Amino acid sequence: MIDTVNASDKDKARFLRVFAFIGSITSFLMAITSYQDGYHALSYLLIIGGFVFASPFVIKNRDETIAVLMLYALYSMMCFLIVSGGSNGTGPLWLFIVSPVTFFIRGLKRGAFDLILLAIIISVLFYFTDRFGYYSYPSHYFPTRVMLCFSILCILAGFYEYYRNKYSLQLMEQLKLNQKLARTDAMTELANRRYATECLQDKHFGEGAVFLLMDVDNFKQINDTYGHQVGDEVLIFFADVFKNVCTEEDVISRWGGEEFLIVIPTGHELRARKVAEKIHKKLAEKPFTSDQHRFHVTLSIGLYVRVADESMDHCLNIADKRLYRAKSQGKNQTVAEVDLAKHEPA
Fold this sequence. Notes:
five-stranded mixed beta sheet, alpha+beta, 7 strands, disordered C terminus, disordered N terminus, single chain, Alpha-Beta Plaits, elongated, two-stranded antiparallel sheet, 2 domains
């Protein structure tokens, strides 16, 4: 399985095809030169390897499986090059390309396991290569130094992969945190105005979506009487109430100051009306409590159902007018259109 920590799907697919292109071209060219030099078995193996490397351009939507297949095909070629010596005894030098490719395709843990296993197999092949009768290295120093260099390169590549994983994870965590900070209101942990506006561009919030624009009643008086700290806690209290009565598909946001906006998706007009009723009911049943303070809080709601081809600003403008009407009619109430007697889909 291709490592998912360090690369996006597009990056992995791009790397796989670059590797496949280089591998297939190199294999076919080396097959030709090997055949001309009289290494027929090596030439045939390189041709097979070339077709394996070319497979990502033919087989679609199987990148992970093909990547592992290509890697193990590369391992098989390396083993044959050790046994046969390759062209003029230079085959073992191709070992040095294995470790970076392995770590990218297999990741740190699986890649380390594969490389350790490959190193053991290659060491055994180096030791017994004379007995196979294919090739005899002029001195034991050459395979020893090849294995030493290969081991050092694997260790260095492993350390590089480890720290790349570590800092990539830290970077992704920081990115997630930055995204959360950019999208949410720090105090209430609701969506902020900018992110809510982005969400409302979705097709589910087109015609028939319900806008509930809400404003806390007598909020200035609360701040003046109990202080701004208690005022902030009141806003958090309201946010918790909204989360309890809404679903995940609804957009709940702090629109600004003591003003909130809930938008219910298309096709749920009756549920939107019930959400407004539940908010009023919960506020009536459960008083706000903070240390030595305990009192009831209320809010006013302007409700509007979006009509086809209406802009979001137009919907908010009408909802705001209805909110103002709710305030002027005594607060702690919802003002909406007269007829909401439409049935929601089952």
